[in-house]
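User: I would dearly like some help making sense of a protein record. This is the protein in question:
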Amino acid sequence: MSIVQERLELLFRAVGGAGSVLILPHNDPDPDAIASAVALRHLLTERLGVEGYIAYKGVIGRAENKALVRYLVSAPAPDRSGSAPVSACSPR
């Protein structure tokens, strides 16, 4: 078993019993952070049936980053704290 497979198994054991998880990329997420969070949500949903919620703090400011979010999920609306959930807190 490769190190990647071992780490995936550890992740699956850690969250396998959860009904949902909150995925937090770094503040002011860039395309890598956004895509990684979406990929993790997809992996957990498809492999374990665990609902994933993505949220971040800060802003997605650059036009190309905003376009990526619009492409991947519906455009987020900021909440009162100035943070906005990438997926408006809805899985898939």
Q: What stands out?
A: Helices lie at 3-15, 31-48, 63-72. The longest helix spans residues 31-48. The chain has one domain: 3-72. Confidence is low (pLDDT under 50) at residues 75-83, 88-92.
